[in-house]
Amino acid sequence: MLVTIFQIGLFIFCYVSVWFVISLLIKRNDIADIAWGLGFISVVIFLFITQAQTLQSSIVYLLTIIWGIRLAIHIGVRTKGKPEDFRYKKWRDEWGKYFVLRSYLQVYLLQGFFMWIISVPIIVVSMAKNQPISPFMFVGLIIWLIGFAFESIGDYQLMQFIKHKQNKSDIMQTGLWKYTRHPNYFGEVLVWWGIFIMVLPLQYGIWAIISPITISFLLLYVSGIPMLEAKYKDHQAFQDYKKRTSAFFPMVPKV
């Protein structure tokens, strides 16, 4: 297993390095967001070529590809014809003459490291011997489907809201966004918990828990909710929305 993990790590290192070069050519770092979903698809393709296939691995591969394609297309459509994302633009301004080096280290290599960690369930299933489908596979699939629905529907609802809203200061507060301030993040976390549960009965399956724990921590405490909501710290409408709406888990809003 360690050999395969090392191979995937080296592969991801090369993958993110290529995207870093592309970012320099087009002069925008938010392309890293598109590279994120496509990176997991690349890992799947690498494992498909280098490892024997089982029914379990085929299912996990397919789900990962579906998730990655949808996410990459969504982000690509969202950013097309628009300036660089405000988070990356802020770093570009703050990093000054060290921008190139810090972009490589703090955007691309760091993203590659997390991609490597979150890919562990995919690596585990790629190495497992074929065995009968267990109830864990069905439970994990149900959780994955719920997560994928939350992420997809949440992203679609927000995109439609932004497209048709009359005032730039308006805040999305309908649909899934009525019950959680971040249905797309909630969905993404469920996707990876679902995949973990699917591979749990396999050899080394318990080690795959590092994947959903990592993505949960990142979205809840690092690059997800905190970074995004910092943009609205002085936005009164959002602060009112924040007081009555759950940050993550869908809940009935407070009156």
Main attributes of the structure:
single chain; 255 residues; mainly alpha; 11 helices; 0% strand
What's the N-to-C terminus distance? 52 Å
Order of helices and strands: HHHHHHHHHHH
Strand content: under 5%
Q: Would you identify the regions where 5 or more consecutive residues have pLDDT less than 50? A: none
Largest sheet: none
Global morphology: globular
Q: Helix/strand/pairing class, anyone?
A: mainly alpha
Integer average pLDDT: 94
Helices, by number, come to 11
Helical proportion, percent range:
over 70%
Radius of gyration: 19 Å
Q: How many E strands?
A: 0
Detailed description of the structure:
With 255 residues, this protein is mainly alpha-helical. The protein contains 11 helices and no strands. Helix 2 crosses helix 5. The radius of gyration is 19 Å and the shape is globular. The protein starts with a helix and ends in an 11-residue tail after the last helix.
In brief:
Helix content is 71%, strand content 0%. By secondary structure, it is an all-alpha fold.
Topology:
Layout: H1 2-26, H2 31-50, H3 55-79, H4 86-95, H5 99-118, H6 120-127, H7 135-164, H8 183-199, H9 210-222, H10 225-229, H11 236-244
Helix pairs in contact: 1-2, 1-5, 2-3, 2-5, 3-7, 7-8, 8-9
